[in-house]
Write a structure and sequence with these properties.
Elements (H helix, E strand, L loop, with lengths): L1 H15 L5 H8 L3 H13 L3 E3 L5 E3 L1 H13 L2 H16 L2 E8 L2 E8 L21 H8 L3 H10 L13 H14 L2 E4 L6 E9 L5 E10 L5 H5 L2 H16 L6
Antiparallel strand pairs: 1-2, 3-4, 3-7, 5-6, 6-7
Helix pairs in contact: 1-3, 2-3, 5-10, 6-8, 7-8
Length: 250
């Protein structure tokens, strides 16, 4: 039975590359046409495969419906939360998760620092687009035309001397973020606060969320926070794999 399941599942990536004949399916599976036909008929009965009028087979509508439903019901916050807690326990610093919604980037989860000096932020609150590490990560993944249009229409408040001054500087910063795969806010929003972030990616490689570790300079200097980069990147990668369903089973 497991061999039949394995063979049936092998048909799906084959048909994802385009329609195939019965003979082509049989050749790829290394089985007789009668065996391939039995598997295709079973998949067809469940809507996962469709037989075209010309006799070739393609992926069925039910497969796309299941994929769309699964993606719609994926809750990146629920998946990410245990990892955020672990990162918080390991570092002691405030950990955030953020999503991009319209022209805003919003915190959707937070685990507070264990230190007395804490960061004031709350779930549901938009972050400053032009300086926040999580915002840079999410916006850097936008299509070029969409990103440039956004850069032209938003404002560039001078929160501190380190704030992003204009659209040109903003786009240069996002180019850097895209190239290196992580982002910082080193006193750009508040002089005394530093932040280090990494992207959470979906199955297609696009950024679906961003996580960050934040700490006041009196708790840890910027250099000390940057030393956590490997740990932050590993956490973001673990969340990405869990979200995408690519982690190996224990």
């Amino acid at each position: 039975m497991s061999q039949s399941v394995e063979r049936a599942l092998s048909i799906l990536p084959l048909l994802a590359r385009g329609p195939a004949t019965l003979g082509e399916v049989a050749d790829v599976l290394g089985v007789h046409k009668s065996t391939a036909l039995r598997l295709l008929r079973t998949l067809h009965e469940h809507g996962l495969v469709y037989r075209r009028p010309d006799g070739r087979y393609r992926l069925g509508a039910q497969l796309f419906a299941l994929a769309a439903e699964a993606i719609e019901n994926l809750d990146v916050r629920e998946i990410a939360h245990p990892y955020l807690v672990d990162l918080n326990r390991a570092t002691g610093h405030t950990v955030h998760l953020a999503l991009h919604q319209d022209d805003e980037v919003v915190y959707v989860d937070k685990v507070d620092s264990r230190y007395p000096v804490r960061m004031y932020s709350r779930i549901g609150r938009p972050v400053p687009l032009t300086v926040a590490a999580v915002a840079k990560l999410l916006l850097a993944d936008l299509p070029e035309a969409e990103l440039r249009a956004l850069a032209d229409r938003i404002e560039y408040p001078r929160y501190t001397a380190r704030s992003t001054p204009d659209a040109a500087a903003f786009l240069r910063e996002l180019d850097l973020v895209r190239a290196q795969g992580w982002a910082t806010d080193l006193g750009g929003h508040e002089e005394s606060l530093n932040c280090l972030g990494a992207p959470v990616r979906g199955p297609d490689g696009r950024v679906v969320a961003a996580l960050s570790v934040s700490a006041p300079g009196v708790v840890v200097p910027a250099e000390g926070l940057l030393e956590l980069l490997p740990q932050v990147l590993r956490t973001a990668e673990a969340i990405s794999q869990d979200y995408s369903g690519t982690q190996e089973s224990p």
